[in-house]
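Priority: low. Protein: Phage tail fiber protein. Input follows.
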Amino acid sequence: MSAKFYTLLTDIGAAKLASATALGIPLKITHMAVGDGGGVLPTPSAQQTALVAERRRAALNMLYIDPQNNSQIIAEQVIPETEGGWWIREVGLFDETGALIAVGNCPESYKPQLTEGSGRTQTVRMVLITSSTDNIT
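Result:
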């Protein structure tokens, strides 16, 4: 059975990571975006340069190497209770130039807005598996 939810490097992300590794220059991942997939669960593609239907993009709260598995990078963003009113079905990581480095889909989650009568702060984590984490910051 194949995985329904997954994350992958985009073609641009793979090229930038290869260049960073070859040159010894860090690839700086700075932002995460979430989207609603246009109303359906999207299938991530390495050819993507944007999310299907981006709803929010903001600076990362945290980016770190998984202490239990050094081939996994974990990116985290916190969405405050004042933002929302949409579904989260897709996630993306962007570098300092705004290029989409990695894209993934996720189990559907409704992010309520406080003005709807129910709000919550929501943490979104994205795990990216790569052969080398040395040149990613």
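The beta strands are 7-9, 29-35, 54-59, 62-65, 72-79, 86-95, 100-111, 122-129. Residues 7-129 form one domain.
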